[in-house]
Structure prediction request, 248 residues.
Amino acid sequence: MGIPFKDGFICVCKIAENDIRWSQLNELINPNNEGTHIVYAEFTAKELGAANYLEIASKWHHGYPEPSDGNEYRELTYNLDEYCPKCGSGKRQKAPFRFKKSPVWGQKNILQLNWIFDEYFVKPEIWKEVFEPFGIGCQPVVLDKSGRELDTVVQLDLTEQVELVDLGEAPFNTCDSCGRLKYLPLTGCFMPAPNFTNAAMFRSNQYFGSGASAWRMVIVSQELYAKAQSANLKGVSYVPCLSRIREG
Prediction:
């Protein structure tokens, strides 16, 4: 079919939905539900630069919260009084995250842990240059075995939660155990607009995820996005949020 692809344990190719070959490829990979595809959107520099707010999404998940055997990290890291094991919502952090070892940063300078999709970890100097001027604090990260504080990484301390509006017909589930609502992950589109806030980086009030995984969307202001771009922040991508007309 003339479609470039990367072979291996998983065959990967990228193709636009308006490519005339897409319908053929879709029939090839999906006849018996043996294949799947992921829809994502690519945005222009103009669209990214015009958005008041943008979702920040990790391109690098490095390591796991420790101790990772049997999910012991939950009891050590979170207050679980309101936690629902059925849908994954309700955790509240009470202690520093524990890493197995110091991150090997390479060319990157911001990361997320596997399983933890609404927390970000950065080099201390990146926090100082990019995030601290916007009033964003940081928390220490410690080694799992010794509890020693690492001097090569800090966790961004996000304290604000803001309601997202205009979710429209976004699919969601209501947990039959705790009754909380959780939206399925949104892909291939602009993100919903948040209510107006002075925070430069914040989480959504709403939960997202599927199964027993739940997280809050992390959003940055246009000003913080521009600062991150100028500082060459590496390890994340951005999705513009829809804009709202300011009331009054």
User: Anything to note?
Assistant: The first strand starts at residue 53 and ends at 58. The radius of gyration is 20 Å. Residues 222-230 form the longest helix (9 residues). Residues 128 and 201 are 15 Å apart (CA to CA).
